Amino acid sequence: MGMLYGGQVQTMMPKLHSTNFEGMELIRPMYLIREEDIKSWRDYNELHFLQCACKFTETCTSCSEDGASNSKRMEIKKLIASLKEINPFIESNIFSSVENVNLNTVIAYKHNGEKHSFLETYDTSIVEEE
User: Domain limits of the chain?
Assistant: First the structure.
């Protein structure tokens, strides 16, 4: 969603410090578990998850008058499902892509809120190779 709608590459880290509550951390212990496995576990245990009214979730009850979801998250899930028909490894490739970033091939990036360009080290990389 970030790439297609936000023009950015970023992930939600599995562990992060709260910006609202000093000393508190958000831990996402199931970030490596596939959604379909979580849903199967939920159904097997006859559990019911809370529904969110956030416009980004697939179960948004306030997204349309008839209750159908028009969320961007659901749109991206459908897009990935269609791509999976062509390439069964698409999900793992997307996940791996954010683990395999080569900063030497990235035009620009942000670090601690400061934007950096490949031009900052472009001329020095030639000198180092010689």
Answer: 2-129
What residue has token string 């900052």?
120
91 in Cβ contact with 84 (< 8 Å): yes
Residue 67 to residue 83: CA distance in whole angstroms: 26
What pLDDT is stored for residue 54 in this prediction? Answer: 61
- The H or E element spanning position 26 is strand 25-27
Q: Tell me the two tokens of residue 48.
A: 């019911």
User: One-letter amino acid identity for 104?
Assistant: N
Could you tell me if 16 and 28 are in contact, meaning their C-beta atoms sit under 8 angstroms apart? Answer: no
Q: State the Cα angle at 26 between 22 and 32, rounded to 5°.
A: 160
**Partners of 15 in beta bridges:** 27
Torsion region of 117: left, alpha or beta (phi above 0 gives left; psi -120 to 50 gives alpha): beta
Report the chain (130 residues): mean pLDDT per 10 consecutive residues: 89 90 92 90 91 58 53 89 96 92 91 93 68
Rounded Cα distance, 73 and 119, in Å: 35
